[in-house]
Specification:
Strand order of the largest sheet: 3-4-2-1-5-6
CATH class: Alpha Beta
Largest sheet: 6 strands, parallel
Shape: globular
Number of strands: 6
Helix content: 40-55%
Structural class: alpha/beta
Order of helices and strands: EHHEHHEHEHHEEH
Number of helices: 8
Number of domains: 1
Distance between the termini: 36 Å
Amino acid sequence: MMQHANLPAHVGIIMDGNGRWAKKRGLPRKLGHKAGAATFKDIARYANKIGLKYLTTYVFSTENWKRPKDEVDSIIELLRSYLNEMDGYAKENIRVRFIGDRSAFDDDIRAKMQRAEEKSRDATGLTLILAINYGGRAEIARAAQLLAQDVQAGKVSPEQVDEACFSSYLYTDGIPDIDLIIRTSGEFRLSNFLIWQCAYAEYVLTDVLWPDFKPATLDAALEEYGSRSRRFGGLTGGQG
């Protein structure tokens, strides 16, 4: 296990390439998603072992509903099965949180999400955040609506509205902004993922398909992050 001197507080992973992984092997896409779920478990546990405090993974976007129905159904069933196994995270001191619009899911899935959050609430290791039925623009629109309601009700004055105030209405209230975004499978898009929270994130893009993503792949991304100078719009060493 590699030791990292400059570990980011919050890493986001856009897990891409399950379908291509399956296609390369002549397998149905749903088996690619199953392999991706196994990788997810391994990476979450490894992130906890190396001391990462926050890991947000893009599990299912608001746009993913547009995929073929049989593929969506298989992803939902995989999610349902995975949620049944989440009690183990609390035992490993991993806290679980979900962000996104849960209303689209069946009652049993919503109940399993709530159970996983409650069971792991007191964990002090990694906070594992699963973005499910999540879209960055939808999150910002929702936050604006909630804030507008509070302004209208007199709970917040227009003069109080600044970045910190607005952030408190996002799903990620209380969670630090993203330091590092990792995207797999050679794509170069943010795909509507945490677009507010990624304002100053570093990006590491890899050709590795998500089911082939290993702890060593994460180590390499963290090493790349550690080698960069983060200026947040300022200057370092007189460089522009």
